[in-house]
Amino acid sequence: MSYECLEVAKEPPIATVTLNRPKQLNALGLALAKEIAEAMEALDIDPEVRAIVLTGGEKVFAAGADIKEMAEATPFDERVRTRMVFRDRLNRISKPIIAAVSGYALGAGCEMAMSCDIIVASETARFGQPEVNLGIIPGSGGTQRLARAVGKYRAMEIVLTGEFLNASEAHRLGLVNKIVPVELLLEEAKGLAKKIAAKPPLAIKLAKEAILKSFNTPLDEGIDFERKCFYLLLASEDKQEGMRAFLEKRRAEFKGK
Questions:
Q1: 8 Å CB contact between 15 and 36
Q2: What CA–CA distances, in Å, run from 137 to 128, 133, 134, 158?
Q3: CATH 1.10.12.10 region(s) of the chain?
Q4: pLDDT digits (tens, 9 = 90+) for 10-23
Q5: How far is the CA of 59 from the CAs of 135, 142, 167, 185, 243, in angstroms?
Q6: For 15-71, what is each residue's pLDDT tens digit?
Q7: Higher pLDDT, residue 78 or 114
Q8: Rounded to whole angstroms, what are the CA distances from 10 to 16, 49, 52, 62, 83?
Q9: Which of 6, 45, 103, 212 has the fewest CB neighbours in a 10 Å radius?
Q10: DSSP for 136-172?
């Protein structure tokens, strides 16, 4: 597929999705949100791809929503445009997504980074939810994911003041997995994606699903879900291959079956 606002590069077993609206600082307008959802869904069912890197390039990840589109929008307009629906589709991708963040990740851009599974940041990365400065609040999960990532009190401060976190602060608070120089960002994110892609795909998929489940369920229910995933994987060919390879002291060849 071809896209107007995105660049998609496949390097099996990984793929890289790059936002490409440089003049708008990768602002997440309706067209870009739609293309992100479509690209991610296409990669999610692509048998050659096992992990995905999402980036905006070295200068900016995504500086927020497209304010020109939203300035005169009514609640009905936003509902009909289904902007949020496209963003919700990103949350249903089963393969691991690694955000490679450089420069600004603000508002909807920060929310999109937080909807990924791992965040690798460059030293120039800046995270924030400054929607309050525009008379609104985060609308794509910002208040919920940020509070879960950094805790209630720090999330309150970030959202209510609209101030930004630099890469070091984000890492210290647990929002970012690791920080690297700008020129090494994509290499680091791709390396991590390849490391994950080398693991058994079914186990990776269910591990991701189980971890995400922990944010929405009580502990007992989450453990029950985890156990069912564990039992299910015992019936997989990858389990047989993984354990046989371990006993035979050789490298396993996982097929996702």
A1: no
A2: 12, 9, 8, 12
A3: 201-247
A4: 999 999 999 999 99
A5: 27, 22, 14, 11, 44
A6: 999 999 999 999 998 889 999 999 999 999 999 999 999 999 999 999 988 787 777
A7: 114
A8: 6, 8, 9, 22, 26
A9: 45
A10: ----SSHHHHHHHHH-HHHHHHHHHH--EEEHHHHHH
Give span(s): CATH 3.90.226.10, the chain. Answer: 6-197
- Specify whether the CB–CB gap between 103 and 64 falls below 8 A: no
Q: Which residue has the tokens 């996982």?
A: 254
Instruction: Give the domain 6-197 fold.
Output: 2-enoyl-CoA Hydratase; Chain A, domain 1 (3.90.226)
CATH numeric code, 201-247: 1.10.12.10
pLDDT at 82: 58
Q: Is the pTM of this model over 0.70?
A: yes
Whose CA is closest to 98, among 214, 173, 178? 178
Rounded Cα distance between 152 and 196, Å, is 31
Q: Are 188 and 176 in contact (CB under 8 A)?
A: no
